Structures are given as C-alpha cells and as structure tokens.
Amino acid sequence: MSDEEKQLNQASVEVAAGAKTQGGDDRSGRMNALLSSAGNLAAPIMASLIVSVCVSAMALAVYDKTRKGDFAVIDLAGIVELEQLRLTASVIKIGTTDEERLKAFQRVQSFGGVLEKAIDEIKADCKCVLLARNAFIGGGGKDYTDSLKAKVGLSGVDLESVRKLTEMAMSRAVPSPESMRAASGQTGNGAFGGGTP
Prior knowledge:
Blueprint: H1 3-21, H2 27-66, E1 71-74, H3 76-92, H4 98-126, E2 129-132, E3 142-143, H5 145-151, H6 159-173, H7 177-184
Parallel strand pairs: 1-2, 1-3
Helix pairs in contact: 1-2, 3-4, 3-6
C-alpha cells in the first residue's frame, strides 16, 4: 500500500472516529479530511492525464503520417473499352487465322488478372487511393491512366483510332443487307423484313 493510500485510510478512520465521538453530526470535519487527502492525489492524477494526452497526440501524429489520404484517378472504363475494341478488330479483320483468334480469346480470359495486378502495382507505387475517373468528382487527383495502359500493354494505343479501325474492319467483315440480297437472288427486303424471295 502506498503512502498516499495509507494517508487516505488514516483520514477516513479519523473522520469515522470523530463522527462517533461527536454523535455523527460532524460532516464538515469528514469533508475536510477527505479534501485534504484528495489534495495529495491531485499531482499523480494530473501527471497521468498529461502522459495520456501526450501519448494520444503522438499516436495521432503517426497515424496521420501513415494513412492513405491522397487520391488519384484512372480511366478504367476507357482502358477496358480500348482492349475490347483492339481484340475485336484483330479477330474480325479479313485473313485472321484460327490461331490468331485463339490467342485473342486467351488474352480476353487473362486480361482481368493482368489489369488487377497492374492496378495493385500502381497503388503500391503511388501510395494512394485509386478511383475510376468517372467516379471522381472534383479536381486535383493525379491521372495514372497512361501508366496503367503501359502496364497492360496498351501504351501508345489511341481509343479513337482503334474505334475507327474496328468500324472499318466490321464494315468489311459483315456484309451489308444489299450485298446479302444480291448474293442470294432476293428482291425487295427479303430475309430482312419482307419482300419476295
């Protein structure tokens, strides 16, 4: 038992003894004894409070330095669309072999894993929270789209150029309704909504 606790016990005993001798009416004496013993505890309580505040402040400072608070953006939808269009164009172009189509199909199957790994690498490098560009409201976030495109093998590939190439390839690969009618000997709309065969 510490000295302070002994003093507090002794003060309580003295108050109780004084109350017995005076018939229990000396409340002010008991209060004075308790207040004097509490005064001895004020310094340790204050020191404990100061230490607690300092430890909490240091913990908050460390947390603030290590938390991920920076935001950056990537055009995830644009990259996925770019890959889809690129693979579509490579598969539907005239002269595409079955082996090339198989490779394109395998690339489609593995693209999700490649994309996820590339995003994780960028997050580790930038130590930031990545958001899809269309989900980010506001300005100031660094754009890592070019870095992501490079990691998934799409650097230097322009979305608009690939769109045009895909449209051109599709127009050559898919015959127009008129050319299909002419090839089948139909007149009018034929197989495409009426007319006579």
